Amino acid sequence: MASALVTAVLGTWHTAYGPRLLLPTETTSFIPAQTIEEAHYLAAVLNAPPVRAYVLSFSSPGRGIGAPSIMQQLALPAYDSANPVHAALSDAGARAADLAASQAGAAQAELAEIERELTRLVAGLFSIPAKDLRAMLRIALPAGPLGLHD
Predict the structure, then answer these.
(1) In this structure, what DSSP letter does residue 79 have?
(2) Strand, helix or coil at 149?
C-alpha cells in the first residue's frame, strides 16, 4: 500500500501482438490526457509537494491515497498549452520523468531542483500564499515519487 500520492505518465507498450495501452491496477486513478504535454502537466501538479501535502491532509496513507475521489477535492485547472505556467509544469514534469527513469545517482540533485521548481510553480498555479506554503511543507511527507524527501 502506498504511503504517498505517486503519479506517473503511462503510454503504450509495444508487444509482438501490437501496441497495448498500459493501465493502472489496484487502488489507483486513471486520468486520461489528450496529449503527452497534458499528461506531464497532470503528473507534475499531482507530484508536487504542496499537492501531496494537501492530499495527505484528508486522505490517509494506504489503499485510499490514490483513489479517484481525491481528484474531486482538487480545483485542478484544465491544461492550457498557451498558459506559460502550465507549459512550465509540463516541461518540468517531463524532465523529472526522464531523470527518474534514468536512475542515475547524479540525477538526485537535479531531481531535487525540479521538485523545488514544481513547488514554486504549483504555489503560483493555486495562488498559495508564502505563509500557507511554508505550513503545508512542514507536513511530514514520505519520500516523493522522485525518491526524494521534501
Answers:
(1) P
(2) coil
Return d(Cα 134, Cα 145) in angstroms, integer: 20
3 state DSSP class of 3: coil
DSSP count for the chain of H helices, then E strands: 6, 2
**H or E stretch covering 14:** strand 12-15
The structure's pTM equals 0.81
For residue 21, the surrounding DSSP H or E stretch is strand 18-21
Exposure on the CB side of residue 149, measured as CA atoms within 13 A: 4
Q: Between 84-102 and 36-47, two packed helices, what is the crossing angle to 10 degrees?
A: 80
Supply the pLDDT for residue 36: 94
The grid coordinates listed for 101 are: 527513469
Each residue's pLDDT tens digit, 86-128: 999 999 999 998 888 776 666 778 888 999 999 999 999 999 9
Q: CA-to-CA distance for 19 and 13, rounded, in angstroms?
A: 5
Which residue has 493555486 as its cell numbers?
A: 126
CA angle 105, 110, 114 (to 5 degrees): 135
Sign of CA dihedral 133, 147, 143, 4: positive
